[in-house]
Amino acid sequence: MPFGVAFGIASADAGLTTWQTSAFSLLVFAGSAQFAAVEVISSGGSALAAIAAGLLLNLRSLAFGVAMTSALAGPWWKRAAWSHFMIDESTAVGSAQSERRWRRYGYLCAGLTIFVTWNLSTLIGAATLSSGGELVTTWGIDATIPAAFLALLWSRLADVDQRRSAVAGGLIALALVPFAPPGVPILAAGVGALAGCRQPRERGAP
């Protein structure tokens, strides 16, 4: 919810109305991509540039779809509806389950819960705190964004290879942030996963 409040305030600062902000969250529902688009708009960028920034960040959803495809099997229209909730949090909760039915349940439960809270908090931020941009830093709301991603990542750092992947990806992103367009550092950080991609060998294999 603090993440959504921060987005509502950022959207208002960028010149979006309360209804535009709410429609943005309802129809797009992709926090980091929405932040990137609003940042481009607030800097005077065009709508096409804002869309491109959001698309770059959301390309990682292709990998999410591959990871969740077996758990979300069904008619195309149902999969299309479910895809609207394909965010980092829902994919993290779903993929953490061992059984397929619980993967689907975890994905949908997390996705629907965050969809509701995200849209409510976005509306609160845009409608009631639109003139309080300083509250984001004063209250530390801006820290909720990296904290949320760190919380998702933490449970995945169970062994040395996973930690190596996380560190490599973080270093790549940090190196690119000062000069790369929004979204590119996150995509490039995926290369860090190669540091931990060691195929397990069967016992007795050379």
Q: N-to-C terminal Cα separation, in Å?
A: 51 Å
Order of helices and strands: HHHHHHHHHHHH
Largest sheet: none
Quaternary class: single chain
Give the total of beta strands.
0
Structural class: mainly alpha
pLDDT < 50 runs, ≥5 residues? 199-206
- Described by the principal axes of the CA atoms, the overall outline is globular
Number of helices: 12
Any idea how many domains? 2
Radius of gyration: 18 Å
- Strand residues, percent: under 5%
Mean pLDDT, all residues? 81
State the gist of this model.
The protein has helices at 2-13, 18-27, 31-42, 47-58, 60-68, 76-82, 88-95, 100-128, 134-138, 144-154, 160-176, 184-189. It is an all-alpha fold. The chain has two domains: 2-155, no CATH class; 156-198, no CATH class.
What can you see in these coordinates?
The chain is an all-alpha fold. It has two domains: 2-155, no CATH class; 156-198, no CATH class. It is built from twelve helices and no strands. The protein has helices at 2-13, 18-27, 31-42, 47-58, 60-68, 76-82, 88-95, 100-128, 134-138, 144-154, 160-176, 184-189. The longest helix has 29 residues, at 100-128.
